[in-house]
Amino acid sequence: MKILTVLVPVYNVEKYIRRCLDSLLLSEVLDDIEVLIVNDGSKDSSVEIIQEYCIKFPKTVTFVDKENGGHGSTINVGIEKAQGKYFKVIDSDDWVNLRGFVELVKRLKEEKSDVVLCNYRKEFTYNSKSEYFEYDGLTDRKHYNFNEIDLKILHGEYFVMATSTYRTEILRTSGLKLMEKTFYVDMQYNVVPITKVESFTYYDLDIYRYFIGRKEQSMNMDNFVRNQEHHKRMLKWLLEYYTQISSQLTANKREYIEIILTYTLNTHYSIYCEYDKNHERAYKEIKEFDEYLLCTNKALYDRLDSMAYVRYNRKTNFRFVRLDGTKWKKVMDIGRKVKERFV
């Protein structure tokens, strides 16, 4: 059995796929990894490039060609077909740090935890800046019992796709199946497997390189506004999923998932309350969603009330959203500055 399956989802990435694959297909790890490439109906020359690697590395590279179904569909196929003990997703316009990746594979040979966490770096190529992320509350190579840790050691952070390497069996037994043709499905990937996780290990290794080549690629609010229906669809799925299974989870797992959901809900309210310029639509949408949240999960509804701008919008029946969400944002920004001055 291979120690690690690296899933590489592909869609029209002829400019970047070589960089990604060259960072993975290193002589030191060829016998230990499976690079599973799933093409999601690319229309450029991505497939021709991939075929070169299939010929060159026949014992390491596995290729699956499928009709377009979105990023989530490629991960679903990857989990189903993976042959490695562990599973990691590397998007085809991203890459890995070579030295860190070799060390990761080496350590995984002796690893038993359900999840391994590593560090990553965002590469903003449009302004030549780089942003490094690490779990500074965790200890290198230390094994943690998920149900016994004090979640404060995570400092409000959680396990994201770029930092996580899951035991493949955990992904399968969790029943994870990502929504197709929908953005933001990484949030499902962040939540569902946790229901089966009992242990994790942190490696203080610099692994993932998250490529942000254009301003419009970044997870900014313009994108969220443009794709707000996708975000709402994904969030409703998560809320209903969690509400249904929460009673079966340990206290730590409930709190951890609620941290993720609170963060995601905060983003969703910001889309409509602060950034959507179609004020009538924003007002109607956030009113309907707020009522939906109250009916679906009152505990999360109340938890979100700790966010000042949500609480005040609710008290004013979201009237500032209807008038102009940007004006409300300016008021809140002023309030934050005043508060900071006196803290």
Q: Notable features of this structure?
A:
globular; alpha/beta; 2 domains; Spore Coat Polysaccharide Biosynthesis Protein SpsA, Chain A
What would you say this structure looks like, in words?
- This protein has 13 helices and 10 strands.
- It has 2 domains: 4-217, Alpha-Beta Complex (Spore Coat Polysaccharide Biosynthesis Protein SpsA, Chain A), CATH 3.90.550.10; 221-342.
- The model has no long low-confidence stretch (mean pLDDT 93).
- It is globular.
- Strands 1, 2, 3, 4, 5, 6, 7, 8, 9 and 10 form a 10-stranded mixed beta sheet that branches.
- The protein has helices at 17-24, 46-56, 71-81, 98-108, 168-173, 186-191, 221-226, 228-245, 251-275, 279-296, 298-304, 308-315, 319-342; strands spanning 4-10, 33-40, 61-66, 86-89, 95-96, 115-124, 129-133, 143-145, 164-167, 199-212.
- The longest helix is centred in the C-terminal third of the chain and has 25 residues, at 251-275.
- It is α/β, with parallel strands linked by helices.
- Strand 2 (33-40), helix 2 and strand 3 (61-66) form a beta-alpha-beta unit.
Number of helices: 13
Which structural class is indicated by helix and strand composition? alpha/beta
Count the E strands: 10
Query: Mean pLDDT score, rounded?
Result: 93
The CATH homologous superfamily of the largest domain: Spore Coat Polysaccharide Biosynthesis Protein SpsA, Chain A
Q: At the third CATH level, what is the topology name of the largest domain?
A: Spore Coat Polysaccharide Biosynthesis Protein SpsA, Chain A
CATH class of the largest domain: Alpha Beta
What's the architecture of the largest domain, going by CATH? Alpha-Beta Complex
Output the radius of gyration. Answer: 21 Å
Please state the oligomeric state of the protein chains shown. single chain
Q: What would the principal axes of the Cα set say about the shape?
A: globular
Tally of separate domains: 2
- Residue stretches low in confidence (pLDDT < 50, at least 5 long) are none
Largest sheet: 10 strands, mixed
Q: Percent of residues in beta strands?
A: 15-25%
Q: Ends: how far apart? A: 56 Å
The proportion of residues forming helix, as a percent range, comes to 40-55%
- Give, in order, the helices and strands: EHEHEHEEHEEEEHHEHHHHHHH
